[in-house]
TrEMBL record:
SMART domains: HTH_MARR (SM00347)
Alphabetical list of InterPro entries matching this protein: HTH-type_Bedaq_tolerance (IPR052526), HTH_MarR-typ (IPR000835), WH-like_DNA-bd_sf (IPR036388), WH_DNA-bd_sf (IPR036390)
UniProt name for this protein: HTH marR-type domain-containing protein
Limits of the HTH marR-type domain: 1-134
Organism: Microbacterium kribbense
Pfam families: MarR_2
Domain of life: Bacteria
Length: 144
Protein backbone atom coordinates (compact mmCIF):
# COMPACT_ATOMS: atom_id res chain seq x y z
CA UNK A 1 0.00 0.00 0.00
CA UNK A 2 1.46 3.39 -0.91
CA UNK A 3 2.41 5.63 2.01
CA UNK A 4 -0.32 8.18 1.30
CA UNK A 5 -2.90 5.41 1.54
CA UNK A 6 -1.41 4.32 4.89
CA UNK A 7 -2.02 7.82 6.21
CA UNK A 8 -5.59 7.72 4.94
CA UNK A 9 -6.12 4.35 6.63
CA UNK A 10 -4.76 5.65 9.93
CA UNK A 11 -7.08 8.68 9.86
CA UNK A 12 -10.07 6.55 8.89
CA UNK A 13 -9.33 4.00 11.62
CA UNK A 14 -8.87 6.75 14.22
CA UNK A 15 -12.25 8.26 13.33
CA UNK A 16 -13.90 4.83 13.44
CA UNK A 17 -12.33 4.07 16.82
CA UNK A 18 -13.54 7.40 18.20
CA UNK A 19 -17.09 6.77 16.98
CA UNK A 20 -17.06 3.22 18.34
CA UNK A 21 -15.76 4.38 21.71
CA UNK A 22 -18.46 7.05 21.91
CA UNK A 23 -21.12 4.44 21.17
CA UNK A 24 -19.71 2.00 23.71
CA UNK A 25 -19.44 4.60 26.48
CA UNK A 26 -22.91 5.97 25.72
CA UNK A 27 -21.38 9.35 26.51
CA UNK A 28 -23.89 11.94 25.34
CA UNK A 29 -21.62 14.96 25.68
CA UNK A 30 -21.15 16.64 22.29
CA UNK A 31 -17.92 15.60 20.59
CA UNK A 32 -17.22 19.28 19.99
CA UNK A 33 -16.84 19.75 23.75
CA UNK A 34 -14.08 17.16 23.99
CA UNK A 35 -12.39 18.58 20.87
CA UNK A 36 -12.48 22.09 22.34
CA UNK A 37 -11.07 20.97 25.67
CA UNK A 38 -8.35 18.95 23.93
CA UNK A 39 -7.34 21.96 21.83
CA UNK A 40 -7.23 24.19 24.91
CA UNK A 41 -4.97 21.68 26.68
CA UNK A 42 -2.51 21.46 23.79
CA UNK A 43 -2.61 25.07 22.56
CA UNK A 44 -3.46 27.03 25.69
CA UNK A 45 -5.98 29.85 25.98
CA UNK A 46 -7.51 30.97 22.68
CA UNK A 47 -9.91 33.58 21.46
CA UNK A 48 -13.33 32.13 20.81
CA UNK A 49 -13.05 32.57 17.03
CA UNK A 50 -9.65 30.84 16.95
CA UNK A 51 -11.03 27.97 19.00
CA UNK A 52 -13.96 27.63 16.58
CA UNK A 53 -11.56 27.41 13.63
CA UNK A 54 -9.26 24.88 15.32
CA UNK A 55 -12.19 22.65 16.31
CA UNK A 56 -13.96 23.04 12.96
CA UNK A 57 -17.03 24.51 14.61
CA UNK A 58 -18.99 27.57 13.55
CA UNK A 59 -18.46 30.67 15.67
CA UNK A 60 -22.14 30.79 16.73
CA UNK A 61 -21.97 27.09 17.61
CA UNK A 62 -18.78 27.63 19.59
CA UNK A 63 -20.31 30.61 21.39
CA UNK A 64 -23.21 28.43 22.53
CA UNK A 65 -20.92 25.52 23.45
CA UNK A 66 -18.57 27.76 25.45
CA UNK A 67 -21.55 29.17 27.33
CA UNK A 68 -22.60 25.65 28.32
CA UNK A 69 -19.04 24.65 29.17
CA UNK A 70 -18.52 27.80 31.27
CA UNK A 71 -21.78 27.09 33.14
CA UNK A 72 -20.47 23.57 33.85
CA UNK A 73 -17.15 24.99 35.11
CA UNK A 74 -15.10 23.38 32.31
CA UNK A 75 -13.76 26.62 30.84
CA UNK A 76 -13.37 30.23 31.85
CA UNK A 77 -13.82 33.33 29.72
CA UNK A 78 -11.79 36.50 30.08
CA UNK A 79 -11.87 39.64 27.99
CA UNK A 80 -9.04 39.80 25.50
CA UNK A 81 -6.63 42.50 26.69
CA UNK A 82 -5.97 43.56 23.09
CA UNK A 83 -9.65 43.65 22.03
CA UNK A 84 -12.35 44.11 24.66
CA UNK A 85 -14.98 42.80 22.23
CA UNK A 86 -13.34 39.37 22.19
CA UNK A 87 -13.11 36.66 24.83
CA UNK A 88 -10.17 34.39 25.59
CA UNK A 89 -11.17 30.89 26.58
CA UNK A 90 -9.13 28.77 29.02
CA UNK A 91 -9.67 25.27 30.32
CA UNK A 92 -10.25 25.09 34.08
CA UNK A 93 -8.83 22.46 36.42
CA UNK A 94 -12.31 20.89 36.45
CA UNK A 95 -12.28 20.83 32.64
CA UNK A 96 -8.89 19.10 32.71
CA UNK A 97 -10.23 16.51 35.15
CA UNK A 98 -13.31 15.85 33.00
CA UNK A 99 -11.22 15.54 29.84
CA UNK A 100 -8.87 13.09 31.57
CA UNK A 101 -11.85 11.04 32.80
CA UNK A 102 -13.34 10.99 29.29
CA UNK A 103 -10.05 9.74 27.85
CA UNK A 104 -10.02 6.92 30.42
CA UNK A 105 -13.60 6.08 29.41
CA UNK A 106 -12.53 5.87 25.77
CA UNK A 107 -9.53 3.74 26.61
CA UNK A 108 -11.58 1.33 28.71
CA UNK A 109 -14.31 1.10 26.08
CA UNK A 110 -11.82 0.15 23.38
CA UNK A 111 -9.54 -2.10 25.44
CA UNK A 112 -11.50 -5.30 24.62
CA UNK A 113 -10.80 -4.77 20.91
CA UNK A 114 -7.08 -5.05 21.61
CA UNK A 115 -7.08 -7.68 24.37
CA UNK A 116 -5.81 -10.46 22.11
CA UNK A 117 -2.76 -8.60 20.79
CA UNK A 118 0.64 -10.08 21.54
CA UNK A 119 3.72 -8.17 22.70
CA UNK A 120 4.95 -7.66 19.13
CA UNK A 121 1.65 -6.09 18.07
CA UNK A 122 1.68 -3.86 21.16
CA UNK A 123 5.22 -2.78 20.34
CA UNK A 124 4.10 -1.78 16.83
CA UNK A 125 1.08 0.14 18.18
CA UNK A 126 3.19 1.82 20.83
CA UNK A 127 5.71 2.96 18.23
CA UNK A 128 2.92 4.14 15.91
CA UNK A 129 1.26 6.04 18.77
CA UNK A 130 4.55 7.78 19.55
CA UNK A 131 5.10 8.73 15.92
CA UNK A 132 1.54 10.03 15.54
CA UNK A 133 1.78 12.02 18.77
CA UNK A 134 5.01 13.64 17.64
CA UNK A 135 3.36 14.72 14.37
CA UNK A 136 0.37 16.16 16.16
CA UNK A 137 2.36 18.09 18.77
CA UNK A 138 4.97 19.27 16.28
CA UNK A 139 3.21 19.43 12.91
CA UNK A 140 6.18 21.00 11.08
CA UNK A 141 4.40 23.95 9.55
CA UNK A 142 0.89 22.54 9.66
CA UNK A 143 -1.77 24.08 11.82
CA UNK A 144 -3.73 21.84 14.13
Amino acid sequence: MPRAEDISEIVTAAHALTRLAALRTKNEVPTAQWRALSVLVTEGPLRLGELAVRTRTTQPGMTKLIGQMADAGLVSRQRDASDSRASVISITPHGQEELAAWRVELRDALAPLFADLDDDDWAVLSRAAGILSSRITNPQGATA
